[in-house]
Specification:
This protein is mainly α and about 350 residues long. It has one domain. It is about 60% helix and about 0% strand. It contains 15 helices and four strands. Strands 1-2 form a two-stranded parallel ribbon. The longest helix is centred in the first third of the chain and has 27 residues. The protein is globular and about 65 Å long. The two termini are about 30 Å apart. GO terms for molecular function: acyl-CoA 6-desaturase activity. InterPro entries: FA_desaturase_dom, Fatty_acid_desaturase. Keywords: Membrane, Oxidoreductase, Transmembrane, Transmembrane helix. Its EC number is 1.14.19.3.
Length: about 350
């Protein structure tokens, strides 16, 4: 696999790192999560598991109520991924490595595969943000165009109107074919070696995790609930569709925006032949609605996406304070800090970019 130079440091990068380190030391803080992130575990897992058990044990039998329960599960599912799994796979959930590993398996509980996530997200996305053919987050099915470097098709003219529908299929794709296809590709590209595993071992783990997932999420409800197979599948679809839309919009408005840069692996941009890693992250990332503590709590601080990309090994509970340091330092060095006041305005501008890309 070909890599580009995204690791160069500069005075901006050094001062930023120094000031954040100083902030943590001065306030006697560790980079990991504390009791505030631990509180999320029972709350978010309850949002996902409680509706499931209420239906499986026959407490809720009304089909419309069950439909509503699957929707709640979708919201809980997204919350677990954003607030718990995400920090854990970055090693920032806890100072205890074993606890990070345990919490990273929440990905398997939701039907995904944490090994694939670490490669796609931690390695490729964080190292090569918005770089065509390197960052899989801006790669997509042919009906969607997230980068000006991707070939244009006539159907893209309408993507601003139908994109949300395909966003809803994001986690459904993980559950079915994507995890298997990704693992085979990562093995071929030699990316499994860096994760200290082999294709055979990883594939065995993947198959086992899928069997367990489909057993508890589909087989058990079919066996113990007074529902038909198509009602179970509708509930399964609703849960994943809601989760997929939430996850997609949170991640998309952080990078696929009118003000963010898009690059190729053969060069950075027409304006910058060589940039530092930190500046690259600010050029390709945007924040939204940082003033809302409830949103920050639910999305695991990913509305502070800039701070997360600069310091991915620091827990999201520290991002609101770190953001003040980043903003000040960025202003001092004349580095653009992309921000949208509300989540709604961020989504609007994301769709506006999709419309622009569709006209190309």
């Amino acid at each position: 696999m070909q890599y580009i130079r995204l690791t160069r440091s500069d005075d901006f990068t050094k001062k930023l790192s120094q000031q954040v380190d100083e902030y943590l030391k001065t306030n006697n803080l560790k980079r990991f999560g504390n009791w505030r992130i631990l509180v999320k575990v029972p709350l978010l897992f309850s949002m996902f598991l409680l509706p499931y058990f209420l239906m499986v044990f026959g407490v809720i039998e009304n089909h419309w109520a069950q439909f509503f329960m699957t929707a709640i599960m979708g919201v809980g599912m997204a919350g677990i991924g954003l607030s718990i799994m995400h920090d854990a796979n970055h090693g920032a959930f806890s100072k205890y490595g074993w606890l990070n590993k345990v919490m990273s398996f929440s990905m398997e509980m939701l039907g995904g595969f944490n090994l694939n996530w670490r490669i796609q997200h931690n390695v490729l996305h964080h190292s090569f943000t918005n770089v065509h053919d390197m960052d899989e987050d801006i790669d997509s099915i042919g009906l969607l165009r997230f980068s000006p470097n991707k070939p244009h098709k006539k159907v893209h003219r309408f993507q601003a109107y139908y994109a949300w529908f395909f966003y809803g299929f994001m986690t459904l794709a993980w559950m079915t074919n994507k995890d298997f296809m990704q693992l085979a590709r990562y093995s071929k590209e030699g990316l499994l070696q860096a994760q200290n595993t082999t294709f055979r071992k990883a594939m065995t783990q993947l198959v086992i995790s899928k069997v367990i997932y489909y057993t508890y999420i589909i087989a058990i409800p079919l066996l113990v609930m007074d529902v038909t197979w198509w009602q179970v599948l509708i509930g399964f679809f609703v849960m994943h569709f809601i989760c997929g839309i939430i996850l997609a919009f949170v991640f998309q408005v952080a990078h696929v925006m009118p003000e963010t840069e898009f690059m190729t692996k053969d060069g950075y941009t027409e304006k910058n032949d060589d940039i530092s890693w930190a500046k690259h992250q600010l050029m390709t990332t945007a924040n939204f609605e940082n003033w809302n503590p409830l949103l920050t709590w639910y999305v695991g601080g990913l509305n502070f996406q800039i701070e997360h990309h600069l310091f991915p090994d620091i827990s999201h509970i520290h991002y609101p304070k770190i953001a003040k340091i980043v903003k000040k330092t960025a202003k001092e060095y004349g580095v653009q800090y992309n921000y949208h006041k509300t989540f709604g305005s961020a989504i609007f501008n994301h769709l506006r970019l999709l419309k622009q890309l569709g006209r190309a």
